[in-house]
Each structure stands twice: as structure tokens, then as C-alpha cells.
Design brief:
151 residues, OB fold (Dihydrolipoamide Acetyltransferase, E2P), three-stranded antiparallel β-sheet, 4 helices, 6 strands, globular
Length: 151
């Protein structure tokens, strides 16, 4: 992670893959209840073409991975902006009838399943322009290769 921050400072590289050595937690924090006024104005604009837009549901929480990687002196914290996480939350809220239960279910999936010890988890990371703030944009979790590599 520190390596990506240094590369961004050098040439503004804004996408990368991080292989955490240890995923400590998926922290759930309360989020703003309403969209920013600037975004609300964009959502309310009329379209010239196509059907009217459905209103976007705003998640009541933000989700943050706390993890270590090879260049860590201390754990990193990065907000998870994974589209699949948001859709899972909305589906679970519908199924379970509660924001709290939906958040717990998302945590179980994104921490307990995607980051298990038998998974070779990778975070697809990107920066929040124009800052050197890195976000988790997606999670890839293939099984660990128990045989290792020959070369």
C-alpha cells in the first residue's frame, strides 16, 4: 500500500492491486443520511433521452477494510467502494428488513468469506482524485494454491 502511495506521488498512478497479508476487520461506520446537495441537484436533472431515472438508494453505512500488507508498519484503513457490497447491502436489507442486520450480513460475507485464511484475497484499489487517498474498488478472492509454485 505504501508503495502505491509513493508511485502516485511520482507519476499519479491511480489504480493498483494490493495483496493483504492480513485482513484485520471490516469496520462499519454510520454515513450521512442524505446525498450532498450538489449530487441531489444532479439526480433531479431531467434527461433529454430515455426513461426517467429511478432514485438512487443511499447506504446508511460506509465500510472500511483494516488490513496489513508486506510494506505495513501499521495497519492500513481503506473505504470499500465495491459496487457488489452496495448491492448486497440493499438486497440483504430487503430480505432481512433491517439496516443493522443487512450490515452484519455484508460484514460476514466481505470479511468472513472473501478474506478467509484459505483465500488469496486481493484488493483492487484506486485513488480518490485529486488526492492520494486509496479506496478498495473491488475484491478478488481465489482459493490459495495449496501446492505452491514451481518457479
Amino acid at each position: 500500500m505504501n508503495e502505491w502511495k509513493a508511485v502516485w506521488e511520482e507519476d499519479k498512478t491511480s489504480l493498483g492491486v494490493v495483496r493483504p497479508t492480513k485482513v484485520i476487520d471490516l469496520e462499519i461506520r454510520p454515513a450521512e443520511e442524505e446525498w450532498k446537495p450538489k449530487w441531489q441537484a444532479l439526480f433531479s436533472q431531467m434527461l433529454l433521452f430515455g426513461p426517467p431515472q429511478k432514485p438512487l438508494s443511499k447506504l446508511p453505512y460506509s465500510f472500511h477494510y483494516i488490513f496489513e500488507c508486506e510494506d505495513s508498519e501499521k495497519p492500513h484503513t481503506a473505504m470499500c467502494e465495491d459496487w457488489e457490497l452496495g448491492v448486497l447491502f440493499l438486497n440483504e436489507r430487503e430480505r432481512l428488513g433491517s439496516d443493522e442486520l443487512a450490515a452484519k450480513s455484508v460484514r460476514e460475507k466481505f470479511l468472513g468469506e472473501l478474506c478467509r485464511d484459505d483465500k488469496d484475497t486481493r484488493f483492487f484499489m484506486g485513488t480518490k482524485f485529486p488526492y492520494n487517498t486509496w479506496l478498495v474498488l473491488g475484491v478478488f478472492w481465489p482459493p490459495k494454491d495449496p501446492q505452491g509454485t514451481l518457479f
